Amino acid sequence: MARITSIIAISILLLLVAGSIGWLVFHGLTTADSPHASSRLSASWIRSVNPRVAQLEKRMAAINAELSRLVPYTPKFPQRGGFHSSEITNTDTPPWVQVDLGVRMPIESVVLVPVSSVNEGKVILDYGLPRQFEVQVSDQSDFSSFEMIQRVDYPSVQTREGFPIVIDLKDVSGRYVRLVALELYQQEGQKFLALDELMVLSGGRNVAIHQKVAASSQEEIPLKWSNRYLVDSFSVMPISLGAEASPSTGLVVPGDYTEYEWVTIRMQFDRPREITEIQLYPYEPSSTASAPGWGFPLRFFIKYRADVNERFQTLLDYTDNDLYHWKHDPLVVSVSAPLHRTPFPPDASADPDEEDTYPLANNITATELLITSTRHDSRFMPSIVALSEIQVITDQGNIASEADITVSIAKDPIDPQSMDLDALTDGYNSRRRILNWPQWLPQVQQRGLLLNERDELLLQLDEAMSSTMQNTAWVSAILLIVSIAVSSFLIARREISSRRQLTSVRKQLSKDLHDEIGSNLATIAMLTKRMRRTIAGEQRLGEVDQIDLIVNDTTSSIRDMMYLLENDRSDLFEFTLKLQEIARRMLVNYELSFVMGDYSQPVQVSNLWQKHVLLIQKELLTNIVSHSQAQAVTITMACGREFELVVRDDGCGIAPTRHDAKESYDLPPRMKPVFK
Length: 676
Fold this sequence. Notes:
Shape: rod-shaped
Distance between the termini: 36 Å
Radius of gyration: 54 Å
């Protein structure tokens, strides 16, 4: 008994384990991203089952930590395309696009910014980017002789879809940089070349800005596709900002001034400086909703002079038209770009084949700069002038922080104490630190590689967790099946054991009845025989015969009871043989015949059923002996869909003796259980 109890306890434990595992699997599937303790328990359990999951999550955490230290990169929503060739039908001559840097110069890197096109609200990354291309450098515009820098295949050259392609060079110089498409991008059966921005880095800055662009073919669609848009410094690539937050938002010129009162920012250096580029960064308020270009001058000019005794010369004059630079990007004024081709505003018309009327210059010499707003941002009342940062670029980098800055309104100086002038040259825009291209681009490339690795890890992690959950589900199902099987086996075994014990008790009881009562009855029978020899008189002999008859009937009844006790279940045919034996014993002086049915198919009947049928037959036969005055008896035992017992005699007649479950009237009380 103790052993069975232990096994039952183990089965219950298996059921609990299987149920717990099943719950963990289900909970892990349905709450995989939940921060609650129960989901963490599921994830922790999965890690303990599959160490591969823990390894992948550890690497994932390391990647996320490294990404948090790198510069952010969120491509801007595309507003216009860039460069787009005509449809290419003849692929014998590969299409190309090139930029003229103006003079021969050392080239450190070539950066290709792919187009992000919008079609029915869906952004298509790397639109028009050739699948194989060459980057070539030459000193001749027709590339009659050139140096092939690199032949690259897409996407192996790109760290991540939509990210800029950076081709680093070493000991390469030239005036012209050309991109040759060897294998074209194809969409809906059309082949073409498209590129958002082409950057050429030299001395840490983009020297291709606003330079002349030529191509084997091009499309000119205002505010969408143009050669000029390839080098206008505006693309889906975000501003080159670091992760460090800005300590200030920039400079807002204070005071009550009208829209057309000139506001001048004067920058003075302690000695003449060779300036190659000036960058003006728009202001972004921190206390209001984002307003791109907030406070940026609508009309302005930039002048410079090399000596205080000289007259100012104009570097950029944009006072005849409004410049709606309502962007977050800086306005880059490149000294080396011919002024008449500087694309202000971006949709200004220009003839790309027009000859230069201004000599090209790599830099200007200046000790003093004037940035004067002649018409201010009129979106706000009163109108305002604001910038987040001014950078003055030389071959040594940004020197703006070395300048003394003053601000005046209509030639009236403003108290420096009323402004945060240092914020204008602190190296930050309104949000984060400004980085130069050599600082920023490698981190962007690294971010792209890490993001790709993280995407792959996410797939592996999802596969590992799914595999673990599936395997766990199988284990849970097997444990559940085993526990049910063990429980069922134990229950069946217990039932079999109980039946065996009951059978044993019955056999022992039958044996005891046979030994004890049978012995007593045998003794009574012997005594009646002796009494018959010694007792005289017919009356007393009749009493002795009566005793002898009772003893014989009791012995027969005990045999019948022993038969029932010793057989829990038996074959129906064997039971009919027992019924025949009883009938022959009870109807010794009758002409007895039996009609048997078909018993070819074995049928098992229970002990209880046998008991009732046996007693029914004995009662029927007793009635025949006692009341029928019959001479012949026929007993039919038919076995079809149900067992049928029919007793017929040629006597004076008694109540109907054939009954079935539907005709249960006038049944003796002992017959009713058979038909329930």
